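hey m, so remember when u said the tokens were messed up on ur end? i reran from scratch. heres the input so u can diff it against urs
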Amino acid sequence: MEQRKINLVFRRLAKAIPEPATELDYKTPFELLVAVTLSAQATDVSVNKATASLFKVARTPEAILELGVEGLIPHIRTIGLFNSKARHIVAASRILVERHGGRVPDNRADLEALPGVGRKTANVILNTAFGQPTIAVDTHIFRVGNRTGIAPGKTPLAVERALLECVPKKYLKDAHHLLILHGRYTCKAQRPSCAECCIVDLCEFDAKR
């Protein structure tokens, strides 16, 4: 897609979604880290139900360490892969306490050194908690980038790099949530709502409905 059209795409998305934000419930960078760790292969709704219980008793790395893996599991048992996620969250909490004074670091290297934190999770934390212009390519963004022609790529990293090059600077900080929300509610995987789409005339999807 040519840059002129991409600029218009983000202008329209920003108008359609004036307050783009994560749908995960959190109050601190650490709570966001826990929620994003739990969200792998899970819905935001299911994660929010689990963290509503968890954050009543443990909302800091220190409190998570007091719970331990066995104490954490009952709060997150409804989430897929809860055993491994519990181990990751406890191990990450230990590192945060021992190396970072209990604070979530605001740089990629330290974030990706935490158990259970890969590039996508680090990007979410950097963007959502610290306002950095990063884009975490999940299934929604990967689909929207390829389907619309905004940022085609065969891998999430390829789509991420394409987006970082083409998204207008004005919208770069919000692009992550603009694209996720557009993909979640309009440009859906099975039945995209093309008739209600604000960028349908710009989209390069062959099978528009």
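this time it looks ok to me. The domain at 3-20+134-196 is CATH 1.10.1670.10 (Endonuclease Iii, domain 2). if urs says something different then somethings off w ur setup not the seq
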